[in-house]
Specification:
Rossmann fold, DNA polymerase, domain 1, 44% helix, alpha/beta, globular, two-stranded antiparallel ribbon, 9 strands
């Protein structure tokens, strides 16, 4: 089992609880339970019929959080699945409607630091990057099987890496590439040392997003969450990079719109029935004190919307 402090401290913990848990007798979902830090806070606020359904694609996270939340085992159900499967998995545990869902996105410090998962360029491991190790596709597949054009598109689309074509060309020429250390060396040969760390972060992020279909999964769960939420129920999303944040912001905006633009000055906009009310006009960010204590909070942005 992972060590006690293997997972990062929950980011924006008090803000999450303040927005998410509106009534302790309701049913909530933690879509990315991780180390159970947010889940523990939610459980402490539950009473009566209150219930928490905890999802995670990473089996290690479920082992850890199940142990952490032993005191609340009568209230908690654990689901080894990606939140993309929210509707089907909730139906399987006889839950048809929910009152709140938390999505704390991205990769955990445990996944980055504890090998051999291949998420980090700071260790020399086999290139893996699968959140769910039951799936066949891995980071090795992307690095060694994608053609140069596909690889460059992944690095640009998901990493916003301006040297994407050059890096892709170098990777294809250097194959086979089996380890993160070797991949890092190839990236260095493409971009040099000056901006290496930023490029490595973008490249590894891009490959990880591709392997786990992170943005597609986010689109899917946001749509399903709106369908499943009771009126007054809330979606709380914590993002760590601009791609996730942009999707969340846009989906909230679309679902809260009162009009659908026609795209023409000659045709009036259509009237829409909003399904959400956005509660955070600007994203909630961690205070300086939290960032000092918990550096992983630096890039976090939290957006919240309420079902109408």
């Amino acid at each position: 089992m992972p060590e006690q402090d293997a997972f990062h401290e929950p980011v924006l913990r008090e803000d999450v609880l303040r927005f998410l848990v509106t009534n302790g007798e309701y049913v909530y979902v933690d879509g990315t339970v991780g180390g159970g830090g947010h889940a523990e806070g939610i459980c402490k606020r539950l009473r009566g019929a209150g219930r928490l359904i905890c999802f995670d694609a990473d089996e290690d996270a479920l082992v850890y959080s199940r142990n952490r939340l032993q005191a609340f085992q009568q209230r908690v159900t654990f689901v080894h699945s990606n939140f993309r499967n929210l509707k089907a998995e909730l139906h399987a545990v006889n839950v048809e409607r929910i009152h709140g869902i938390l999505l704390d996105l991205g990769v955990s410090s445990f996944q980055l630091d504890e090998g051999p998962r291949g998420f980090s360029f700071r260790a020399d491991e086999r290139i893996d990057m699968r959140m769910d190790r039951r799936q066949k596709m891995s980071g090795w597949t992307v690095v060694n099987r994608y053609d140069e054009k596909m690889l460059a598109e992944v690095l640009w689309k998901y990493g916003e890496e301006r040297h994407s074509r050059r890096i892709a060309r170098k990777i294809v020429k250097a194959r086979p590439i089996d380890s993160t250390g070797r991949l890092s060396s190839v990236v260095e040969s493409a971009v040099g040392k000056k901006f290496l760390i930023k490029s490595l972060a973008r490249v590894f992020q891009a490959i990880r997003i591709e392997v786990n279909d992170e943005l597609g999964n986010l689109e899917h769960v946001l749509a399903d969450s709106i369908d499943l939420l009771e009126p007054g129920g809330r979606i709380v999303v914590i993002t760590y990079h601009s791609l996730e944040d942009r999707i969340t912001k846009n989906r909230f905006k679309e679902a809260s719109a009162q009009r659908i633009p026609s795209g023409s000055k000659y045709i009036p906009d259509a009237v829409a029935v909003p399904r959400l009310r956005v509660l955070t006009k600007t994203p909630v960010k961690a205070a300086a004190e939290e960032i000092e204590h918990n550096p992983s909070a630096r890039s976090a942005k939290m957006r919240v919307a309420e079902r109408l």
